[in-house]
Structure formats: structure tokens, C-alpha cells
Amino acid sequence: MKSGKSWAWVTFILGAAYFFIPLIATMEFSMRMKRGEYSFEAYRVVLGDPRFQESFTFSVVAAVFTIILGVLLVVPTAYWIRLRLPQLRPVVEFVTLLPLVIPAIVIVFGYIRMYGSNSPLPFLSSDIGTSALLVIGYATLALPYMYRAVDTGLRTIDVRTLTEAAQILGAGWTTIISRVILPNVLIAVLSGAFLTFAIVIGEFTMASLLNRPAFGPYLQNIGANRAYEPAALAIIAFVITWGCMSVIQVLSRFAPKSANRPN
Amino acid sequence: MTDISLSEPAAAGKTLPPAQARAARLPTQWLGVAPFIIFALMFLILPTLYLILGAFQNADGVFTLENILELAQPTILAAYWISIKVSVASSLLGAFIGLAIAIAIVRGGLPNWTRSATLTFSGVASQFAGVPLAFAFLATLGRLGLVTVLLRAVGFDLYQHGFNVLSFWGLTLTYLYFQIPLMVVIITPAIDGIRKEWGEAAATLGATQWQYWQMVVIPVIWPSFLGTVILLFANAFGAIATAYALTGSSLNIVPIVLYAQIRGDVLHNANLGYAIAFGMIFITGLANVFYIWFRTRSERWLK
Question: Domain named ABC transmembrane type-1: which ranges (chain A) (predicted)?
Fold first, then answer.
């Protein structure tokens, strides 16, 4: 190992340099707004910008709805596949991986052509409908991550025994999923939720093509028109991503304790 | 759905029920996945099929190969070419660099904190894409970026030496920021899967270090490595936000051409837009068929 150590250190340090220099540079750039001194002026300007607040709020709300939709869609499905339709698992897994194959821009292009104002389902004819379509689009983007997180969570619990116990106690399907299964995979669901949040919050393509006042298009707009604010926004976005990932890491530490492994 | 009895599912897996019984039960069983299937059809599969079908039709809905053939015009071909170049370069470089980092933190004898720090950071950086990433690289390697300015101060002008962040290499270097971490995140478990005993066993049998790598390590990690390369390729190929925010439309990769087409029909042919979308699905689809194939092969080793 001794002889191997030096190359490992070199690799590690080069990697660290590649990843930290842009962060340092961005930080430095974001603080250059006032001539001749470092200041947080750019952050003050950005955070005080009403368009920042509006677009950020819009994206947070969209993310929350995306998470709700994703949970409603994925938890019962993954549960049911585990319990009753294991032969369908490859199909469902394939479908959940499709958003990695089909680029977001293609999916949203399909929406625009399929759900226009003179289609049977005119999502795009109203603002609220378009926002709903955006949330739906985000839910498809998050599908691979959400499904994997939930399915991993379900693997750690004994779905069949829990279901039978609940049924013996007289619980219906809604009760079983919401009060027995969901609490048991809550940590997995939350991991998926925070990952979804990180993906959705700054998403550009779908929001821009659906003309929604989301954070991603706002970022792009600021990037095209300002000098120092984009750097500040990049740091803010990095901090948000970091926050989401840290929460997931902390959650994963609790995961094995909360779930009883079968056998 | 409440009328489904309890004991059946346990038995269903082991003893095959009579064909009739299965047929009778199937509809209620399927209700459980119906919302998911309907959602996937409406918002994932049908919109995609709509575009694919549109790619093979003219404006009057008649079948034609014209749109596909029209993809061969120089601007569109160039767009595909630059997209493929950036995706291949960033996925291969990202894969090899990511692999080197993963090997360094797992097998390099580094202190433990380097491993957890690298994995945590990789988790974050692999999701740090899109518009903010473009900002970060403009602040680093743009004309006024810190690295550009510092290098100029020591007498090396990047931009006079042909570098431009708004170029093929600029974009590739930027994409590496999420490609390398993604590789690290995915490949580290595979490297963990290489047991120490294998090295000892190989050494006992008289294998040299090189033979051990060539005949044990590489065959074991090869499928998941190649699989991840393909995932990285698709990841870069479909990305638009970073490139758009970084280069505006000065570097015409396919997603940017498609974006402009959706916004304003710049090609003056709606069905040609469908054909571009079809071309993108075709390329990422082809890559992912390989990915799925390699993943199933690599899973055999990781268990």
C-alpha cells in the first residue's frame, strides 16, 4: 500500500482542485460587485429582487406538488408490485428508467404538441393547467430516483406480513398504504423527496418551454443580462443542492434503525 | 379491490394457479398499478410516440421518410456531431477520471475521511448541473474568470492560446463537473465489491499485480464501468440548460437546435422538429439498450 499511496494522493488532490477551484472562483466573483472591496452586495441585490422571490417561491411550490404527485404515484405502485405483481416488476422498472433515455426536452415537446388548446385534454389553454403539466413533467423527471428510493425502502421491510397483519386488524387498502407502509418507508420517501427537490428547483428546459415563471428561466435570464448576480445565484443553488444532499445523508443514517429487516 | 383474499398471493408465486383462476383475478390485480400505467402512458410514452410518429409523417399526416432524410442537412448534422463529440468526450473522460478517483479512495490507502468526503461531495456535484453550473464555469474560465485572470497575471493568456469556455472543450470541461462525480457515485460500490481475498488468492497462485488487474479486477468492474459510461453519455446528450446558459446559441448542440425549433419553428417544418426529437431518442435509446444489457451482466458479480 505504501507505494500506492502517492498516486492516490495525487489523484485525490487533482480531483479536489478541479472541483474546488470553480467554487472558489465563483465565490470570489460573486463578491466583486463593489469596486475595490469584497462584499456580499450581489447576494443582497439578488435576494432583494422581487422576481427572485416570486420565481423561487413558484419553483418551491412546484417542487412540493411534484413530490406529492410522485409519492402518490410511486408508493402504491411499488408496494403493489412487491406484494401482488412481481412478474410486472421488469416492465415497471423499465418504464421508470425511461426518463433517463428520453431527454426532458423531448418529453416536454411531446406535451406541447399533445396537450395544446385544441386537444381533448387542453392542459395548455390555462395558466393553472400549464403549471399542472409542469408538475407532471417534473414528476416524470423524478420518477427514476423516486421509484428506486421507495423500492429500496420497501426491500427493508416485510411487506407481506405487515399487510396481512393490517388486514387481520380490519384495515382497508388506503389505510394499509397510508398508515402502515408509508410510515415504514418514510425515510426512503423523504430521500426521494429531497432528491426530487434538488432536481426540480433549478430546472430550466421544461419550465422555459412551458413559459412558467420558474426559478430556472429566471436564472437563465439573469445570466444573460447581469455580471455578478449569476455567480451569487450559482453559490445559492450550490448551497441548496448541498442542503438537500446532506438531508438525504442524515436520513440514510436513520434508515436501518427504523425498518425491521425480514429474516 | 378489498375482495382480494389473503392467502392467494403467497401461493401464487410458488404453485401456478389454473389458467382460468388467473384470468379471472387479473383485472382486480391490475387496478393497483392502473394509475401508474395510465400516468406513464399519458405523460411519458404517448407524447414520445406522438413525436416519433410525427417524424415519419408530412404536414398532411401521410407517411414519409422525408423528415428523416432532411436531418442530413449540414446544420443539423453538425449539431448532432458536436453533441455526440461532447457527450463521448465528457462521458469517457468523466468515466476514467471518476474511476481513478474511486480507486484512489477505496484502494489507495488514503485516510477514511477522504472517502466519505469524496462520496458526499460527489452526491452533491452530480446533481449540480443546469444553469448555475454554467455560471460557475463562466466565473472560473470566462474572460474575466478567476483562473483566466490569474493565469494572465503569470503571463499565460488562455484565450490567446485558443481556449474558449464557449467551445467544445469548454463545454466538455464543464460537463465533467457532474459526469466525474456521477461515475464516482456509481462505480465505488463496484470497486468495494472487489474482495481483498481475490487479490490474496491471485497472489497465492503466483499472479503478478498486473495479471491480477488484467484477469480479476478489470473483468469484474468492466460491465458496470461500461454501463456507467453509457449512462453518462445519455446524461450529457440530453442536457441543454448548462450549454444554453453557457454559450447562448453560439455552440449549436442538438438540444439547443430543438429548443429553438420548439420556441419558434426556426426550421419552418414542424415535422422536421419531430425528426430531430426522434434522432435524440434513437441515440440515447441505443446507448441505454447497451446500458441495461451491461447492468444485468454486472449485477451477477456484485451480489
Answer: 52-251
Q: Look at residue B171 and tell me whether its pLDDT is greater than 60.
A: yes
B210–chain A Cβ distance below 8 A for any pair = no
Which pLDDT does position B10 carry in this prediction?
42
B210 to chain A: which residues are within 8 Å by CB? none
Quick one: cell of B173? 470541461
pTM, entire model: 0.86
Label residue B58 exposed, middle or buried (CB < 10 Å: 0-12, 13-18, 19+): middle
Domains present along chain B, CATH in parentheses:
72-302 (1.10.3720.10)
Q: Which residues from chain B sit within 8 angstroms of residue A203, using beta carbons?
A: 130, 241
For residue A223, the domain's CATH number is 1.10.3720.10
The residue among B90, B128, B177, B179 with the most chain A CBs within 10 A of its CB, best to mutate, is B128
Identify the domain containing residue A248 by its residue range. Answer: 51-258
**Average pLDDT in the B114-139 region?**
90
Q: What pLDDT, on a 0 to 100 scale, did the predictor assign at position A156? A: 86
Task: State how far the Cα of B231 lies from the Cα of B236, in Å rounded to an integer.
Answer: 9
Q: What is the ipTM of this complex?
A: 0.88
Residue A40 identity (one-letter amino acid):
F
Interval B58-83 mean pLDDT: 89
**Looking at residue A263, what is its pLDDT?**
38
Q: Write down the residue that cell numbers 429487516 correspond to.
A: A261
Residue A186 domain-assigned (yes or no): yes
Q: Which of residues 111-130 of B touch A (CB under 8 A)?
A: 114, 118, 120-121, 123-125, 127-128, 130
Name the one residue in this structure whose C-alpha cell is 421544461.
A206
